[in-house]
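User: For my dataset I need records formatted as: sequence, then structure tokens, nothing else. Please produce one.
Assistant:
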Amino acid sequence: MRSTTVETFEGKDIMVPNEVFITTSFANWTRKNQKQRYRVDFSVVYDTDIRKLVEVTKEAVASHPQVLNGENYPVEERSDCEIDSFGDSGVNMFVEFWIEAIDDGKIVSAGICC
């Protein structure tokens, strides 16, 4: 099949067949890149100390043994926590982080390792 392959910021490939480049695309989960970015969304009440929350969240995520973090990694691959939007009852936040070879070893789900 003739196609164009585009690598996303999350480290995934999107293969777009040339004949339907504008209307059809799909994700290639063969994972030629062992690093994958994940995002977890959450909300906090409005009176939360956001600066402290961001600091604590980034430290907690970075401390997980499977999360790529530290001076050896580019800034864009280190864990990050940001404000997404303002909701009816709180601030909508997200944390992003990179994991290498998640298919190897223990299963990680919603921050809980079993």
